[in-house]
Write a structure and sequence with these properties.
Oligomer: heterodimer
CATH class of chain B: Alpha Beta
Number of strands of chain B: 5
Largest sheet of chain A: 6 strands, antiparallel
Radius of gyration of chain B: 12 Å
Helix content of chain A: 40-55%
Distance between the termini of chain B: 22 Å
CATH superfamily of chain B: STAS domain
Largest interface: A-B, 24 and 23 residues
Structural class of chain A: alpha+beta
Structural class of chain B: alpha/beta
Strand content of chain A: 15-25%
Strand content of chain B: 35-45%
Largest sheet of chain B: 5 strands, mixed
Helix content of chain B: 25-40%
CATH class of the largest domain in chain A: Alpha Beta
Chain lengths: 660, 96
Amino acid sequence: MKKKHRFSILLRVSLLFIIAALVSAVLSLVISYQFIINYAARQGRDIAVVAGLAVKIAIGYREEFYELFHDEAFRREIHKDFKYICRSTDIQNLYLYTIDENEVKHDIIIASNNDAEEIRMNERYGYGSGNHRPLYEAERQVLDGNLDGNYELVDNEYGKVFMYILPLVDDDNVLAYIGVDFSFESIVEIARNDLKVGFLYGSLILLLTFIIAVILIKRLVINPIQKLSEDMRNFAKDKELNHEAFENERMFEDEITDIRSSFDEMAIDISKYVTDIEALTQERVSTQTQLDIARKIQCGIIPEEYAISGNGFDIFGFEKPAKEVGGDFYDIFKAYDNNVCVAIGDISGKGIFAALFMVMVKTALREKIRAGASLSDALTEVNRDICLANPENMFATVFVLLLDVTTGKMKYANAGHNPPLLLSEKSAFMEVESGMALGLFDDTVIEEKSLSLKDGEGILIYTDGITESIDDRKELFGEKRLQEEADFIFNQDREFCSARETVIGIKEAVNRHCAGCEQFDDMTCIAVIYHKEEEGGKELSPDIASFKLVRKAILGSLGESEHTRKVILACEEIFANIVSYSGADNVYFTIKRSGDTYSVTYSDNGVPFDSVSAKIQSKEFEELDTGGMGIMLARMYSRDMNYNRIGDRNYLEMKFNIKG
Amino acid sequence: MTITKTINGNEATLEFEGWLDTQASPELIKELDEIGEDVHSLIFDFTKLEYISSSGVRALVGAYKKVNGALVVKGASDGIMSIVKATGIDKRIRFE
């Protein structure tokens, strides 16, 4: 913003006053000039009248007046009177004269307040002498019949002179003329003195008025406005109000009090809003911090993906926390003997409490099941434990299952969680008792059921984040869609559909459904697939086409990646060798996972061949197309290879790292 | 595995998509056999190839011999290149 010069209102008002004072001084000077002229004229007239009266009293009647021309003693007497008048006033000259028919002036008496001047004039215009000085306008007017007398400003040998001419009249006959001369200078001098005094008093009064006005304006207008402006500036800077300043200290209501009260209201409102916003922001920040911590707890404890598989089972779990973390959890672990345990749960509420509650439920459950408790006992006990210390009245829905991987027998218990989906030729929701969520009532008893999975069947468990994810038209993904999608994915290639493929397939279906929409709740999904363990692993026909089963198994358990392709390459090269050179008529393969090791074992009834120690001759480029580099690649891409010949079978085990 | 073949005078371009594994390599050999004697140079586009096994590598060597070395392979991924380098054929076949 351009910086503007600051002119306070007071300064501007003062300047206006000064300008007004100057203008009025000039105006009064102009008016005074006119006043001076009028004053001189009035005085001239008064003196001329007095002088005329003196003459009239002295002469008595007309005949005697004419004797005046001849009686010198009489003239001297009148001259004395004239002189007296001159001396006692500011008149310069007082004179009596006539004008004859030829417009020639004849002086009779000339008196002056200056003796030297009077003598000089008498010598020049002595008694009776006629002179042809042109008639003044005032004299002309008398000749024209205006007998009231008149004044005129003339410039003659005496300088600027103000002259008043009054005819001496008797019965409408003009006997003579009486002239009164004032020096204009002396009039101006008088007026100037008067004006000086006038100006002095005027200025004093003006100044006094000005001071009073300024004080009043300052008190009534400027001060409140300044205070208001200061308050506004402070308020704009600090967004805080000194509330005392808001008390109404004025006697009357006016525009300023209106502004003041409007500003006060506004400022109070703004302060309130600011406080509200600050509080709101603070609350938001603390909520956000809480959610962040909760999210870290959840993400740290629940891996995004987790898989275990082995002879007879293949389990894959997946969780995607929502932006604002909820409290989904899942747990997959080997419980005891041949049993693997899978648990899934959803905690009510969000934030740190939900996250800690989740950790408590998950840890307690695992601990009890590992200790050998039945699912029913484990859930019932966990419920009782958490009911003892649950100040936030949280609750958790949990579904837990225990699978005997050697028999396919599965025990399960439900504490208020969504029903699981049985993955089979015709996948459908299981009829399970809903049970009571954990944390609500301390006397809840959770029941346990059992089910036998057939070879290739599985269980899909999930949280409501899956079924309740919505698309842009607020349509739920829903149980029906989940069932259809799962059934389709699972039966697409029934021979070897992995738990990973099933779960990832459902995740993608949900993503397709709610494309671009925000995820509101955590999504968790686990698939458990049971494969009846076969003696020596899964049978493959000795044909390179059957390698696709191996490939699917590896992809299913490791997922698609560059590393997985290397594992597949090694397995393919060995299998191609078996098919091409061993003459075997049956081949089995088994996959095992243990820690970070992934192992694939082939067993075949072909001729003995030890791929591990067989010498591979390095070939020239031209001979590369004749074979031999397959084993080299298998050795290169496996971490470890073991060969055993047991009975009439070759056993070749290849070990890989699970991660690249 | 799909192979798209374009013949332009003496030059044939083969575009590969998918997995060139033991099962798919015979397809490549068959494709090569079908190319007439008037084709003198080959361009293999590996941009969409995801996987190659030793049989695939052997088929590449066969193709190289068929056109007396006038074979150029383009767009091979890092994963494919690491296998190719392991076999040593990159010393003779031109990979771009």
